[in-house]
Structures are given as structure tokens and as C-alpha cells.
Amino acid sequence: RIVLDQAEVFEVDIIAQDEEGEKYCVEVKSGRVGVSDIRQVYANSKILDMKPMLVCKGFADEAAEAVARELDVRVISLSDYYVLLEPEELEIVVRTALQDVFEEYGLFPIPQFEEIGERDWRIIEAIAKAESFDEAAKYLNLEADELGKMVGDLRRRGVFPRRGQSFDDLKRFSLQLIQRYSIVRKLEEIENRLKRIEERLREIEEP
């Protein structure tokens, strides 16, 4: 859910980030998409300052395809045969298909800052600077199997992507996390400084 000025304005199905740090506002539709669907995801992505993406069964008509091309909305089509499946089966297929697509493009959900603890950061930083899994374990004074269990826990909690990755992919994702949250910390520091300045100015203005 996206909240602006304390009001819930719209919902986004998925927010993903690629290996270049580009963020995507992803909408998933069960059928074919029309012009209104494309305009909606485009508008939402602009509000969030992200790139738009639609996952669906294709375009409803040529107008929709033309608008998507004009607005640079990426559309990923799923096969029509999925309609023959039961709802539970369809959910599994769609989830798996999305995971495969996101992995292909290097897109993975980014965890919330609050979900990452100090121990987690030590693991992330070790993987980011190491050239192999064994080297990362050595940085942490751990055996490789111990680190493997910790990485498994991070996957289970959603800090790392839940599906298996190569060490290079895990290293790339760790670097993305560090880069993103270093920016978050800097912004928080700036915000705190501004608050202190405002408080100081109010104190000076008071008689």
C-alpha cells in the first residue's frame, strides 16, 4: 500500500530492483491488459519514481500495445494455457514464473531496513567483499556450513532471495543492499541534522 499525506492512495503488487539498482513498479494482471491498465501502472511508477512493468497474458488490442511502447512500459506475457489450471495450481505457476522472470532480469524484492539486524549486516558485508563462499566464512570466523545455515535463515526471513543463487549473484545482491542502505542512513542523518537546526532556530526565536 502506498500512502501519501497520511492517505492510502493505491497499492502495488510488487516492487523489485535489478542488478543495476533500477527499481520497478510491477503490476500483475490475470488477463490481457488494455490502455487503462497501462496508464495506471505508468502513473503509479511515476509517483514512486520507478520504472513500470506489467505481468499479464498480453495486450487486449493494438492500442494498448502502442501505448505501452510509447510510455516505455515493459510487458511480460504469460501463456494462455494457464487458464486451464485450478486456482491453486495457477497461483504456484504464476509465482514460479515471476520468480524465473525476475531472476532472468536480476530483479529481487528488497527487504525492509528494519528486517536486517546487526548480525545480518556482518554476513552481508562479508559476502560483499569476499571472492568466494569459503572466503566469506573466514571473514566471519565461521565454517562454510555454519555460514550456509545463516544464509539459509536470511533466505527464510526474506532478507536474501528465497530461491538459490550462485555466490556471484549473492555477492551482487549484498552490494546492492549495502549501497541502498548507506544512502538511507545518509538521508536519515541529514534529516536529523535538519531537525536539530530547526529546534535550535526555534530556541533562538523564543524570547
Overall description:
The protein is of the alpha/beta class. It has 2 domains: 2-109, Trna Endonuclease, Chain: A, domain 1; 113-205, Arc Repressor Mutant, subunit A, CATH 1.10.10. It contains 7 helices and 7 strands. The strands form 2 sheets. The chain has a 5-stranded mixed beta sheet with strand order 6-5-4-3-7. A two-stranded antiparallel sheet has the order 1-2. Strand 4, helix 1 and strand 5 form a beta-alpha-beta unit. Helix 4 (118-129) packs across helix 5 (133-139) and helix 4 packs across helix 7 (167-205). The radius of gyration is 21 Å and the shape is flat.
Q: Order of strands in the sheet with the most strands?
A: 6-5-4-3-7
CATH domain fold name of the largest domain: Trna Endonuclease, Chain: A, domain 1
Q: What string, H for helix and E for strand, traces the elements in order?
A: EEEEHEHEHEHHHH
Major sheet description: 5 strands, mixed
What is the residue-averaged pLDDT?
77
Distance between the terminal alpha carbons, to the nearest Å?
Answer: 44 Å
Total separate domains: 2
Structural class: alpha/beta
Proportion of residues in β-strands: 5-15%
